[in-house]
Amino acid sequence: QVQLVESGGGLVQAGGSLRLSCVASGRIFGINTMAWYRQAPGKQRELVASITLSGSTNYTDSVQGRFTISRDSAKNTMYLQMDSLKPEDTATYYCKANRRTLGGTNVPYWGQGTQVTVSS
Questions:
Q1: Alpha-carbon distance 85 to 17, whole Å?
Q2: Can you spell out the DSSP letters for 70-102?
Q3: Given a cut of 90, is residue 14 above it in pLDDT?
Q4: Separation CA 107–CA 78 (nearest Å)
């Protein structure tokens, strides 16, 4: 099993910044793509950004240019630097990791989420 623990959420004014962290532990061998998702009340969970093992990144259009995803493999940690935050960024942010098993199956793991609230 893989355990993912997010931290760094909080309350911030519009235009401010936050940095989320996601620490992976347990059976981390085989983890490849990691990602940040978010879910606002009454809405579906959506992909915010993803990063591959080689460092290739992808962002949803609404955060492009404002958010930066990164990972430190030595620390088994993924980050999401969020700048120029907007009230519409308010959501619970979840960390996701895909782990490829020896059998070749990709198994997803999720963290418990961290709340980000942006006030106007």
A1: 6
A2: EEEGGGTEEEEEE-S--GGG-EEEEEEEEEE-T
A3: yes
A4: 18
Element (H, E) at 10: strand 10-13
Better-scored residue on pLDDT, 104 or 15:
15
How far is CA 49 from each of CA 1, 56, 120, rounded to the nearest angstrom?
23, 11, 24
Q: Cα–Cα distance between 15 and 12 in angstroms, integer? A: 8
Q: Would you call 27 helix, strand, or coil by DSSP?
A: coil
pLDDT computed for residue 15 by the predictor: 98
Q: What is the torsion angle, in degrees rounded to the nearest 10, for the CA atoms of residue 58, residue 105, residue 92 and residue 89?
A: 10
